[in-house]
Amino acid sequence: MKRLQSLQIVAWGCLLFLGACSSIVPHERPVPDMEIIEADRSEEGAVRMTIPSRRLEGASDSAVDQLLAEASAAIAAEHYERANALIERAVRVAPHDARAYFGLSQVNYHQNRVALSQSFLQKARSLAVNDKQLLMAIDKFAERLGAYN
Amino acid sequence: MVKKVSEKTSGKRSAQPGAKKKPSESGKKASQKNISENAGRSPLKVLVGLLKWLIHPLALKVYLLLVVIFVSYVIYLDATIRSSFDGKKWQLPARVYARPLELFNGLGLSADELVSELVDLGYRPSSATQPGTYYRSGKTITLYSRGYKFWDGDERAQQAQITFKNGRIAQLQTLTHQPLPLLRLEPMEIGAIYPRHREDRILVKIEDVPPLLTAALLAVEDHRFYQHHGVSPAAIARAALANARSGAVVQGGSTITQQLVKNFYLDRRRTLQRKFTEALMSLLLEIHYEKEPILEAYLNEVYLGQAGARGIHGFGLASQHYFNRSLHELSIEKLALLVAVVRGPTYYDPWRHASRAIDRRNRVLDALVLHGLLAEEDARWARGQPLNLGKKSQSHFVFPAYMDMVKRQLAEVYQQQDLVSNGLKIYTSFDPRVQRSAERAVQERLAKMDSSATALSDKQLQAAVLVTHPATGEVMAIVGGRNSRYAGFNRALDARRSIGSVIKPFVYLTALEKPEQYTLATLIDDAPIPIKNRNGGVWSPRNFDRKDHGEVPLVTAMAKSYNQATARLGDSVGLDSVIETLKEMGQQRELLAVPSLFIGTTQLAPVEVASLYQTIATNGFRTPLKAIRSVLDKDGQPLERFPYQTQQASSLQSNYLIQQALVHVGKYGSAVAASGRLGEGTFAGKTGTSGGQRDSWFAGYTGDLLAVVWVGYDDNTQMRYTGSSGALPIWSDLIARSSKQSLQLLAPANIVDVWINVRTGQRTRSACSNAYRLPFIEGSEPKGSIVCDALKESLR
Q1: What is the assigned CATH class of domain B440-738?
Q2: Alpha carbon of A25: minimum distance to chain B alpha carbons (Å)
């Protein structure tokens, strides 16, 4: 149980603090202009991070962010089916957002669907190809899962 | 002897109860004595004799028996009432809903499309100050959503302002200009699965019913409802008098309770026995239950109209049926109309007999005024209103092909009885806009093909379309034939036809999974090739144009759909390997292992082809197609969810290469005609034409839609059309109207781009002729020196 909780904390921490910068850059396309936004404020000061100003599918960042935040709360409350449904909505809004698949991986892990969790993790990894921070988070989660064994 | 005497004395008396019964010996003598004595006695003595007979011990036994029978009957009726009134009262159909439209910044949606969606949902144009209304001003729409209970939570009713730009939502905000990340509209009902009797209703709770509705109902139908005990002798007497005066049945004396009992428990025969039972059951019902549950049951039970074979029962559904909105959204005159219809849904059918319905409605309004429930001024206004009926519901049974798929998926989880009685709510991924685009594309294109002078047959061509979301595998639309309203043979799911070259990407993918042997630039000989069958025969395919093209790079062979090169490639990688690839990519049925499979003699249904292409579109992750997202019970409690599933089926890199090859089909190959309309590089796909031109296929996808189109004759005869000239135009029409997002492929890790001469497969420079930039899995790119025979024409 403790292992599960620590996984959850690590994963969602990574997802929310780092995952937002899932820069999905199309092959052969210039990297879009970046804008700096304030993402979170810690005691030490503002944590600043970058996200692409225009996503590949033109979807609303805030829509996906809201759904993932709600999903995070649902996971914390152990309402996994609800979390799953919320993240699926995020996938529909932004089908190429690696964070959503990372979220599905975690929810399915909590629901003891380990094979499916690993599949979503692979999917997340394939989409986060240009987002090193998110890739690190994914790999960390994968290491714990033994996904790449 | 007894009979003889009584006949002589009183004629018909023999018909009286007890006259035929055989008395005991002592009783017999007494009776004979009394009767024979009565013959010559005074009426007083006769009466006394009769009384003696009535209190005779035998008669008392008969009375007792009758009482026992009556009490048993009452107990039976009582049990009947309680068992059905306490438990589930009605068989409720399962309702099927489309996807809810989610609004957010950047969504590809025009103002016109949103208005169309709102109209379908029964929203009405006004000042957007009440739920279910909207206001449009140019490119801005203000709406007041209704709110809805979804699986993942409640969506509250809220006001929002949506601004559009270039066919997308540019800004979504509250009326106080606060950004609104998301707004989800309620889903449109697209069909239902009915019990055999085809009664339909939407249950309402009495506390949710507008008080004016119940007031009007009671004022007109039973104004002493709260005073009587189920039966109103005064009302019966009044009705009898009125009927006697007119010589016909002009007035009923039934209370609301009696009407409920009649509808709920009894048949419609007009017999004394039925009336007696009805009265008895009404009394029993009122003994056991308060007035409110009885009234609530009536509000849900009463028959209020007909929609085809479907009976409209209860005010909840009647409100939707007549006005396309819920009860609490109805104004006075509309509520009055619903009450007016109670008296005779056919006679007062507002669509067919508008003036009758208005007269009756106004009488309801009069009754409200008479009972002091409505001010005369309000009633006057209401009387002056037209009927303002909603659009006659077209949503039921109009998407039979999609409903077919929903039922098949449900059958895997639910019993038929659950589906027709428990009021399940089934939420699907059906997209009405995409569905209509698909239907329109089929109808328009087939009409053109029919009228073509070059058509070989006077029979009608058929078509099938299945549309999914390329990322999730959710089925968005299905057209099962050219008559999309006809619930017959569903070609999209059941027509297994030769798929022609649509199969080729899987042959090439099998090769590309071996990057050390095959790349997109690998040259393949397109010369004739004889291949031995497993039965010893020889199969030798020919190209569609009957020409040989020599050595061509793999990407060109696929884009141009060369049969000879593909067969050679398939033969090299092996038939079993190709079949294994097809299985990995989603093919579930066993396939006939013959070499002609390489060029598509394999027979698949459009849904199977979609399943295979889905895996390519999702970057090599097999994602089962599904139509249903979730199922809730009648109270909105979650029952079942059909979660998104996926499994990696091919390597990211080889899948990326095959996707690029499919883009080339549109850029330079057999689907180039669609590029002119949709834009070069905006889609990936493959044409297919079966041997003898019996089937025309196109399977392709953009960033937000994957569609498979089949065209052909049901009897499998030859037609004039190829994949490019038959299915592709339908696909292009559909995509042009519905797709909001071009294909944008993401290169996975370990992919490098190299300029290649597509004639020779050698490295070249971008400025050279026949130079195309092709992706390679790192390490597999051609290593030779750069060769540039000539500059591109544009650079010369």
Answers
A1: alpha beta
A2: 7
**A30 or B582, greater pLDDT:** B582
Which of B189, B221, B474, B513 is catalytic? The answer is B221
For B682-698, how does the pLDDT look when each residue is reduced to its tens digit (9 = 90+)?
A: 999 999 999 889 999 99
Backbone angles phi, psi at B137, to 5 degrees: -135, 100
Q: B199-201 and B310-313 as β-strands: parallel, antiparallel, unpaired?
A: parallel
Q: What is the rounded CA–CA span in Å between residue B406 and residue B485?
A: 16
Question: How many residues comprise chain A?
Answer: 149
Please state, rounded to an integer, the average pLDDT across all residues of chain B: 88
* pLDDT score of B90 more than 50: yes
> The domain B199-383: what is its CATH number?
1.10.3810.10
CB-closest option in A62, A82, A88 to B181: A62
Instruction: Find, among A142, A141, A148, A133, the residue nearest to A18 by Cα.
Output: A133
Answer whether residue B311 shows pLDDT above 70.
Answer: yes
* Rounded CA separation A68/A63 (Å): 9
Q: What is the CATH number of domain A2-25+57-145?
A: 1.25.40.10
Segment B579-618, tens digit of pLDDT: 999 999 999 999 999 999 999 999 999 999 999 999 999 9
CATH, domain range B94-188: 3.30.2060.10
Question: DSSP per residue over B111-131, as a string?
Answer: HHHHHHHHHHTT-EES-S-ST
Positive or negative: CA dihedral B231, B235, B239, B245 = positive
Q: Answer for the pair A125, A138: CB distance below 8 angstroms, yes or no.
A: yes
* ipTM of this complex: 0.80
| C-alpha–C-alpha distance, residues A136 and A19, integer Å | 10
Catalytic site includes residue B221: yes
Are the Cβ atoms of A63 and B108 closer than 8 angstroms? no
Give B274 or B221, the one with higher predicted confidence: B221
| Pairing state between β B497-498 and B695-701 | unpaired
